[in-house]
Amino acid sequence: MGCTSSKGTVDVYSPAPSSFAVFDINAIEEPWLKPPVHREAPDEKPSNVPAPLLEKLQAIEDAPRTWDEVSKALDDLNSLPAPPAPDSTPTPNQKPPPRKSFSFHTLEELESKPGLKKAQSTNTRSRVEVAPKPESGTGEVPKSLKDNIFILRDRQEREKEGKSSGFVNKWNPLNDFEEKCPPSGENVVVVYTTSLGGVRRTYEDCNRVRQLMETHMVAYDERDVSLHGGFLSEMRELLGEGVGVPRVFVKGRYLGGVEEVVGLNETGRLSRILNWARVERGVGRMGCEGCGGARFVPCLECGGSCKIVVVGGQRERCGECNENGLVHCPVCM
Asked: Locations of Basic and acidic residues compositional bias (predicted)?
């Protein structure tokens, strides 16, 4: 049993007509083995080299390359007539030559010219003129701003009206602060402080202001309200009741307390204020050998007890010292 189709005859395989066995591979010509074909390019541009020179060049290329023949060929090339000069008229696409400049480059060239110069050119559209040099005595530019005639006239008018003739008050940095002058504080820096440490924050604020003044090397007048009650009265008269220390005054101007002074120092305004006010620099009373900067010493009459013995054995209040039995240092005052 089995399939009927499998009992027939079987055909033998034969290659297709397009097989490689039909062609002769040796008869194929490779394109790179064929000789080159010289064709003239249709778009070839004409050469500007003269025909005699072109023939000589071709003859040199075809001739054997010996030194004698090359030298002879070069001599023949040198004997050829020179080509005609090109036309000097500019073509539409060619740029014209640059025009001659009539400007000056140095101060000597400017001074060597007369007062007025006109550019002699047909292509110039404007007229170049040089202003004449002003004569000495009239028409000169002021050497400084102070010599300006308008400023001088304004200064004279201000002097006639009794006003200030300058602009110093406008740029005075102290004008931004209130005018409050402590006694004998017109030309010094006055700082109201305390040396008691009862209130820690107040004591630290006073030390911070002292440190700022020492950093700027300012010889300031420190007025300790804890050592002398008169200083406390002065500060209250200037600022009113309930105002604590420290308080800073610069030449009759009130700067403020510790927050204001620290803010001015951080922005750089404190240094400018002190420089403009021209305050005294140095250690000042801090270097006093008598009190060491405290400005007070014990009373020499009562020894700091505030009591003295009078005739009859009675004790009276000492009139030389304050409520604390202290007097101003005779060395630094």
From this structure: 64-75
pLDDT band at 126 (very low <50, low <70, confident <90, very high): very low
Are the C-beta atoms of residues 213 and 229 closer than 8 Å to each other? no
Angle between helices 269-277 and 258-267 (to 10 degrees): 90
C-alpha distances in Å from residue 135, one per residue of 123, 132, 138, 141, 309: 34, 9, 6, 11, 90
Query: How many CA atoms within 13 Å lie on the side-chain side of 332?
Result: 22
Q: What is the DSSP string of 220-263?
A: -EEEETTT-HHHHHHHHHHH-TT--S-EEEETTEEEESHHHHHH
Domains of the chain: 146-171 (no CATH), 177-282 (3.40.30.10), 294-333 (no CATH)
Question: What beta strand segments (E) does the chain contain?
Answer: 178-179, 189-193, 221-224, 247-250, 253-256, 296-298, 307-309, 315-317, 326-328
Give 147's pLDDT tier (boundaries 50, 70, 90). Answer: confident
- Per-residue pLDDT tens digits for 243-298: 999 999 999 999 999 999 999 999 999 999 999 999 999 877 777 888 888 889 99
Q: Determine whether 60 is exposed, middle or buried from the number of CB atoms within 10 Å of its CB (0-12, 13-18, 19+).
A: middle
Whether the CA torsion 156, 157, 160, 164 is positive or negative: it is negative
pTM value is: 0.50
Closest Cα partner for 80 from 51, 58, 47? 51
Residue 246 to residue 283: CA distance in whole angstroms: 19
d(CA 230, CA 238): 13
